[in-house]
């Protein structure tokens, strides 16, 4: 079986505000903005280089805006990504990693893939995690 993750639904309160944040601020590509009459609208955006998209809109999820937490994005350079997000006006955490004492401020000193992180939230409070992956695990 060959299955791929296509889209994740993010609950938002204001579709236009979310579209502006994801497309204009973060630079995600707008794949679709569809109104289906009445109270239905679906916007699909995709991060640059990603095969998986996110969707948000009206009438597509009963989840409360701001309750979606922990969606991962990956980068090969967490410092450059943080600088770019700050330049774009995104409130983003300082980098952290996990060491012998648990969560530790700063980037993993060995730059081990999968062990340095940033966090940020969209205007509704949906939380995102950015993880540094310099080399993928085999089979990916």
Key words describing this protein structure:
about 140 residues, alpha+beta, 2,3-Dihydroxybiphenyl 1,2-Dioxygenase, domain 1, 2 domains, 4-stranded mixed β-sheet, 2 helices, globular, Glyas_Fos-R_dOase_dom
Give a verbal description of the structure:
With 140 residues, the chain is an alpha+beta fold. It is built from two helices and nine strands; from the N terminus they run E-H-E-E-E-E-H-E-E-E-E. It has helices at residues 15-25, 78-87, and strands at 7-9, 29-35, 41-46, 53-58, 69-75, 96-99, 102-105, 116-121, 127-132. It has a five-stranded mixed beta sheet with strand order 5-9-8-6-7. Strands 1-4-3-2 form a four-stranded mixed beta sheet, covered by helices on one side. The longest helix has 11 residues, at 15-25. The mean pLDDT is 94. InterPro entries: Glyas_Bleomycin-R_OHBP_Dase (IPR029068), Glyas_Fos-R_dOase_dom (IPR004360), VOC_core (IPR037523). Pfam families: Glyoxalase. This is VOC domain-containing protein.
Low-confidence stretches: none
| Secondary structure: helix percent | 10-25%
Count of DSSP-assigned helices? 2
First-residue to last-residue Cα separation? 15 Å
Rg over CA atoms, rounded to whole Å, is: 16 Å
In percent terms, what proportion of residues is strand?
35-45%
What about the largest sheet? Answer: 5 strands, mixed
List the helices and strands and how they pair.
Blueprint: E1 7-9, H1 15-25, E2 29-35, E3 41-46, E4 53-58, E5 69-75, H2 78-87, E6 96-99, E7 102-105, E8 116-121, E9 127-132
Parallel strand pairs: 1-4, 5-9
Antiparallel strand pairs: 2-3, 3-4, 6-7, 6-8, 8-9
């Amino acid at each position: 079986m060959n299955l791929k993750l296509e889209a994740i639904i993010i609950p938002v309160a204001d579709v236009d505000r979310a579209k502006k944040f994801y497309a204009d601020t973060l630079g995600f590509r707008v794949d679709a903005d569809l109104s289906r009459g009445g109270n239905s609208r679906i916007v699909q955006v995709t991060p640059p280089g990603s095969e998986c998209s996110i969707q948000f809109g009206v009438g597509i999820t009963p989840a409360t805006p701001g309750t979606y937490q922990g969606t991962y994005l990956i980068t090969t350079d967490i410092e450059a990504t943080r600088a770019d997000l700050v330049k774009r006006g995104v409130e983003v955490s300082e980098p952290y990693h996990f060491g012998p004492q648990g969560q530790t401020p700063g980037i993993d000193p060995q730059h081990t893939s999968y062990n340095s992180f940033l966090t940020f939230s969209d205007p509704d409070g949906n939380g995102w995690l950015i993880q540094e992956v310099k080399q993928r695990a085999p089979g990916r």
